[in-house]
Specification:
Helix content is 29%, strand content 26%. It is an alpha/beta fold. The strands form two sheets. A four-stranded mixed sheet has the order 3-4-6-5. A two-stranded parallel sheet has the order 1-2.
């Protein structure tokens, strides 16, 4: 496994938690790997930040023939009442759950996305629910008054909801939405001689 991450701080965390796994400085639009060097590319919680016209050719380039590209999102399962109450405070995470791919064309680089949905749970300390909220971009970009409101509301939920009150931890249910695309072998031939070739990363 090789990780590619643009943020220096996140690379440091990954290196600390996964010693021995290469963590390279790069981005989806400029992947520092050789042509045809990987069997699969997986993207977690990030594809919506990509510039597809640059990222898709790069992902196609580093994949071997027959390789697979998978974009996935971990989404809170609002069918559980206390999770629905949490989403009522911070907003729902509906992206990715639609039946069809919603992020623009992937051809000619890849086949049409195939969708899968996987359910699982993660044990979360009840007093750390606020940490989940504070990690969201909507919280980080909110003004101080809105952040204080969210802190207060999450604290009230943890103290009063029957599923949370008095418990040290809780099982947070998630649905992981995965879109799988296969590398299209003919994509390289679609670039005309007058067009710039896809950008390549370093060796």
């Amino acid at each position: 496994m090789v990780a590619v991450e643009p943020d220096e701080r996140m690379r440091a965390v990954a290196a600390e938690r996964h010693p021995g796994t290469p963590v390279l400085a790069g981005s989806a639009e400029d992947i520092p790997l050789p042509d045809g060097s990987v069997d699969a590319v997986a993207v977690g919680q990030a594809y919506h930040w990509f510039t597809p016209q640059d990222a898709l050719p790069q992902i196609h380039r580093v994949l071997r023939e027959g390789g697979v590209f998978a974009a996935l999102w971990n989404i809170r399962d609002d069918r559980t009442p206390w999770v629905a109450a949490l989403s009522g405070i911070v907003g729902s995470e509906g992206y990715g759950l639609e039946s069809a791919w919603q992020y623009g064309p992937v051809t000619p680089w890849f086949t049409e996305p195939e969708r899968g949905l996987i359910e699982h749970t993660v044990t979360v300390p009840t007093d750390r629910l606020i940490d989940l909220v504070q990690s969201r971009s909507s919280y980080l970009t909110a003004d101080a008054a809105e952040q204080a409101r969210l802190d207060r509301k999450i604290g009230e939920l943890a103290a009063t909801d029957p599923a949370l009150a008095g418990r040290d931890s809780v099982e947070m249910p998630y649905r992981t939405c995965v879109y799988r695309m296969r590398r299209a072998p003919s994509a390289a031939s679609t670039t005309s001689p007058d067009e710039d070739p896809p950008r390549r990363g370093g060796p």
